[in-house]
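Side project, low priority. Logging it here so it doesn't get lost.
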Amino acid sequence: MFEFSLLLSPFLFFFFSTLSLLFFLFFLISTTKPSSSSSPVPPPPPSLKIKSYPIIGSSLEIFANIHRRIQWTSDLIRASPTATVVIHRSLGGRAVLTGNPSNVQHILKTHFHNYHKGRTFTTNLTDFLGGGIFNADGDNWKFQRQVSSHEFNTKSLRKFIETVVDTELSDRLIPILSTAAADNSVLDFQDILQRFAFDNICKIAFGYDPAYLLPSLPQSKFAVAFEEAARISSERLASVLPLVWKLKRLLVVGSEKRLKLAVAEVREFAKNIIREKKEELNHKSSLDSTDLLSRFLSSGHSDDDFVTDIVISFILAGRDTTSAALTWFFWLLFKHPEVEDKILNEINEKSESPVFDEVKDMVYTHASLCESMRFYPPVPADSKEAVSDDVLPDGTVVKKGMRVTYHPYAMGRLEELWGSDWPDFRPERWLQRDPVSGKWGFVSRDPYTYPVFQAGPRICLGKEMAFLQMKRVVAGVMRRFRVVPVTKDGAEPVFTADLAAKMKGGFPVRIVERACSE
């Protein structure tokens, strides 16, 4: 995520000028309505020029689009001949937004050393994530990456993940959907998928089952605290005036008081589990559990803060990303029944409980998930900070300390990258038929054209785990049910994002049992 913060001058004149401006901007915001649609087929953007003024830069436009910042910045990138724009901020500050694959490769790989998470990101998230891998740079990040990469590449972890996902699917998700179908009740499917993902990632990360996905839809103390901490940390990043949250943190009031309490709850809970596992480890040479925490402790990484930070980071990464991807996937399937039929045919060719290799071979489902994430990436924009002056491949000048954001949401909508049919939801663009067997084969895209899972040294460690989980959910749900959105007058859902993408207001659906002949 990237932030729209304005910088404040210490001079009293500018301070009082800013106050006057804020009253005007408050009126502007209150009368500006966010877009009511997130359809993947918006009209081509006109040639957009961002208005900029002395001292305040483009702050007026930033404020006016604060409720639709992802869509607005996507429009700017799509309207630019180079797919790159520079936004002028207050007091001469500048920020770069890009959807140019050459720039993305430059940032994420070629000049990786020059683009860090940076001070802005770490300042906003350190209270929650500490020095965890997703909030770390330099040697600290490199060490955590090496440790994590080793653990993620083991067959035993993959098997453990399969077991966790299958158990959650058969024992919790399917029964809840079956009951909803029998009762003809309306479910918030986004909430259901988030609960499913949270249970899974907690069991995978530290062997704890929060039992968040139960028929009663309980408010798990740990889950609620984690959600609160993630939400307020995200609000910090999106804050237009960071001075406000910093002042609240200093005074321990409002949202910052709630954040402090939530973080304390999350970290204390994690440390209690660490203590229990350490005691178990004192009585045996290794832990029987195969969750990530047990693996870290068994391999000699016993520092409480280090292990807590890294496990919390993985929970954050796995909590919303797969649920966000699946939420939008099921929405698109409803709008494209021909794709749903093809996926269902592929699922029915597999066994009732497909093994890993069978799920891996579900190429049309895999392509459909990729196509869905092209329109609705779980992380729609990601920001880095320049360590030193640089020039991007398209000629954009970057100064030390500038924020540079690559924008997967915009990139999925660029005709230059996907052709004139880019507005079409067409999984076949990811497939190629074998001339001999006639079977579909998956054709991956350049990760710098499709950086949904990042790319370069920071490419997502859990990518394969995410696809495994998503395909097993798709197969398990679609084999038995149709997911039918409950919409008002054909209204389109609204795409929003904090630390990960969401469907604004949830995803109300009815669950319909499939006939045996389907």
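Brief comment: The radius of gyration is 23 Å.
Revisit when time allows.
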